[in-house]
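Researcher: We're reviewing a set of sequences before deciding which ones to prioritize for further study. For each one, I'd like a predicted 3D structure that I can look through quickly. This is Calcium-activated outward-rectifying potassium channel, putative. If possible, include the structure in token form so it fits the rest of the review sheet.
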Amino acid sequence: MAREDASQPLLSAMTDSSLNETKAIQRRKPQRRSMAPSEKGSQEQQRIPSAINPESALVAQEVRFKYVLLWLASYLGIGTLWFSLIRNQIDGKKTNGVLDAIYFCVVTMTTVGYGDLVPHSTLAKILACIYVFTGMALVGLIISKAADYIVEKQEILLVRAMHMNEKFNAAEILMEVETDKVKYKFLVTSQLLLVLIVVGISFLSLVEKMEFIDAIYCVCSTITTLGYGDESFSTGVGRIFAIFWILSSTVCLAQFFLYLAELYTERRQKALVKWVLTRKLTSSDLEAADLDHDGVVSTAEFILYKLKEMGKICQEDVLPLMERFKTLDVDHTGTLTASDLI
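Model: Here's the predicted structure for Calcium-activated outward-rectifying potassium channel, putative, in token form for your review sheet.
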């Protein structure tokens, strides 16, 4: 009898939680009926959870983006000073001392390494080794934040363009972006990468006077950081363009593959969740879900079992919590009350 009474508050809490979650999901779905302006304003506030707050998130991203630019400028400044002072110890196709130094820094830190400029002295080789290791860390840990900021700024524009002929307010657009964040990041990055590839090919063909196939070949070997070196930027104008284009394109390609992997993982996870929720239960499932071995599977036990199937939690996560609950449940009623805490 005590067991049944104890299970009632739990069931009630779980039911309320399920209803609240269902309502939250329903609020995420766009509503296309026409509303009064005041009603729209109140619904926008209700639809955007305080935990998400996209505007404040974008402001924080913008602050981090400015720090990224500051770090990048400092890093390139130090490298430019180093390699300008030892420019006589670097062999290859040269245009302007300072420009070549910046170009050499970018080619080194992105690991493109064309070979059109190479260090030949001991000091130059040591500095190049130091610069490439620190540059890889900078690209991996800092510049990717800048890419995230740019992508997130473009996500809203992409969603608005996709629903141009439909009546969506700002809150609904932000919620859709938040719901399918990985998908939209992948789409935005794909578009940016395509633009960078086209711009690179066009510049190499028109300014560097490369054949069309050679331009494609140079772009591919650059953005993948393969950098064979038989085709590269040799003019002063070309190297000015390369300083910005190489940084943008190599980072964009890295983000493209990152979001592609995330999108694949997310879809596999969704497929797993769908399978877990729709498959038929067996007697062995009931035995495995019955954590307290009383012959009955409660709502909480069922949810925990399904979460374990989905890979959200594991048995090692559940057992310590159950032991802690038993320790706090002094009167052994299956619930926690003020008397248990005393």
